[in-house]
């Protein structure tokens, strides 16, 4: 089985780590980036990861993209209900990026601005679309990708798990190939390190997860950073 690397780091500016991540056997990966005041972001991202994990482990495989979306919807209900019952959690939410591999088949489901990338040979491609205000502007041609990275409103999401009742989950499936390398990450990586540098690290580092964290910290580490790197045999 191909190697999996994972790492998370609070960064250099924040006091707590609101990201959560999980590797669920077999070959299923979750990254969640929580938001909300006090400890609410941590609560939301942890609920997402735990709910997805518990749901999948009770569900027969393959965990195709519709099952992954069902798991995220269940987490959406749980987080919404918890926020309703506890005033201090009001307005909490989380991103959710989930990838499941079954043989050569890859499935994913996604909400928010964490990302799934695929490195295949020399091609490094973002497989998810950010559900963010600036991404909407980029799609309309009003901002370039470079401008979006430094835009003052780049943290504003158009939707998050636990923050809306009518959640729209992006899902897809595709064929993986031997040698493919998947990266799941929170925006604490992608706001600090550009895609070209990320691809270079994935190709060369002995432990790519630790090396990506190091690169984000060296670039300022302004946010929590989480990465999972998983290969395909
Ligand atoms: Ca973040």
Question: In words, what does this structure look like?
Answer:
This protein has 233 residues and is of the alpha+beta class. It has a single domain, classed as PPM-type phosphatase domain (Phosphatase 2c, domain 1, 4-Layer Sandwich), CATH 3.60.40.10. Helix content is 33%, strand content 27%. The strands form two sheets. Strands 2, 3, 4, 5, 6 and 9 form a six-stranded antiparallel beta sheet that branches. Strands 1-11-10-7-8 form a five-stranded antiparallel beta sheet. Helix 6 packs antiparallel against helix 7. The relative contact order is 0.21. Bound molecules: calcium ion. Calcium ion (CA) binds next to helix 5.
**What count of structural domains?**
1
Helix content percent band = 25-40%
CATH C-level: Alpha Beta
Major pleated sheet: 6 strands, antiparallel
Q: Give every kind of bound small molecule, once each.
A: calcium ion
- CA radius of gyration is 17 Å
> Whole-Å distance between the termini?
6 Å
Mean pLDDT value: 95
Q: Helix-strand pattern, N to C?
A: EEEHHEEEEEHHEEHHHE
Large-scale geometry: globular
User: Beta-strand percentage?
Assistant: 25-35%
CATH superfamily descriptor: PPM-type phosphatase domain
Runs in which pLDDT lies below 50 for 5 or more consecutive residues are none
Structural class category: alpha+beta
- Which architecture name does CATH use? 4-Layer Sandwich
CATH topology: Phosphatase 2c, domain 1
How many β strands by DSSP? 11
What is the helix tally?
Answer: 7
